[in-house]
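F.,

This is the one I mentioned.
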């Protein structure tokens, strides 16, 4: 069983930076993609950034130029560096890992979320 635990969320002012971390515990046969989503009140959950096993990175338009996703070589931890934060970045940020377990089944794992609040 894979568990994801996010950390790093906080209340900050517009223009500040935050670094979110997501630590994975438990084993999985292979990981295909790791990423960050966010959900603001009253809105649907949306992709912020993702990184594939091969290192291909995708950003939401709102994140381009301000956010950077990275991971450690062991693929245990995935990070989201967020710079120049804006009030509209306020949301619960969720870490996700997609992969294949040892029985060959695909799974999408989610963390419990970490709150990011940006004041103007």
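My design for it:
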């Amino acid at each position: 069983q894979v568990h994801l635990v996010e950390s790093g969320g906080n209340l900050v002012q517009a223009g500040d930076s935050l670094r979110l971390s997501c630590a994975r515990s438990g084993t999985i046969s292979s990981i295909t993609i790791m990423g960050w989503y966010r959900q603001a009140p009253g809105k649907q959950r949306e992709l912020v950034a993702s990184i594939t096993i091969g290192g291909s990175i995708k950003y939401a338009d709102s994140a381009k130029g301000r956010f950077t996703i990275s991971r450690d070589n062991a693929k245990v931890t995935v990070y989201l560096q967020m710079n120049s934060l804006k009030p509209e970045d306020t949301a619960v940020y969720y870490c996700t890992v997609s992969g294949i377990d040892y029985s060959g089944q695909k799974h999408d794992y989610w963390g419990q979320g970490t709150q990011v609040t940006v004041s103007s």
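The mean pLDDT is 95.

Talk soon.
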